[in-house]
Automatic annotation (TrEMBL):
Name listed for the protein in its UniProt record: Cation transporter
Membrane topology: Multi-pass membrane protein
UniProt subcellular location: Cytoplasmic vesicle, Secretory vesicle, Synaptic vesicle membrane; Early endosome membrane
Residues annotated as transmembrane: 21-44, 50-71, 83-109, 115-134, 155-179
GO cellular-component term (any): membrane
Keyword Hydrolase recorded: no
Keyword line: Cytoplasmic vesicle, Endosome, Membrane, Synapse, Transmembrane, Transmembrane helix, Zinc
Highest rank taxon of the organism: Bacteria
PANTHER family: TRANSMEMBRANE PROTEIN 163
Family membership noted in the UniProt record: Belongs to the TMEM163 family.
InterPro entries recorded: Cation_efflux_TMD_sf, Tmem163
Phylogenetic classification of the source organism: Bacteria, Bacillati, Actinomycetota, Actinomycetes, Kitasatosporales
Amino acid sequence: MTREDSGVVGVPRAALLRRGFALEYATLGWNVVGIVVLAVAAIAAKSVALAGFGLDSLIEIGASTVVIWELSGTGEERQKRALKLIGVGFALLAVYLLVQSTWVLAAGFRPHHSVLGIVWTAITAVVMFTLAFGKARTGAALDNPVLKTEGRVTLIDGLLAAAVMVGLVLNSLAGLWWADPLAGYVLVYYAVREVEEIFSGDH
């Protein structure tokens, strides 16, 4: 039995592909629901961070769609195009984080408390970290750079959810409204690194 047929550690390739599809559809479903929840929470709290996180969910939906498209076909050319599309998603995410964080800091914008926002971002962080771990393992088993790279998009989604949650908690408990935009700058650096790696061919 070849590696192409069996994947890695005895798991059939067909089973790995099904797992990859399941991970991406789970990500899609969660983020579609998340956009609705975040819109409600953002309007109620007048929170720029929550509204921005909704945009991040849109980017994640786009990245998952790209991976589903790539897993449905074969060929190095399709993988290259899929990686570039994911790279564009990372670039959009970096621009969004940079603009949002700078605007919030400059304006001194103070959102209202949001219990719904805290609960949703906390759960989302756990879900995204779990999905990112699964994508990393499955992508490595399939030797699929597209799935592995999109797993890092999911990881950033989880990190951003955690950052937004911490910002909301600190704002609620201590009035530290600037915590979230500062965390956003850290994620900008991470996203830019991923864009550089993808377009330099390191993947």
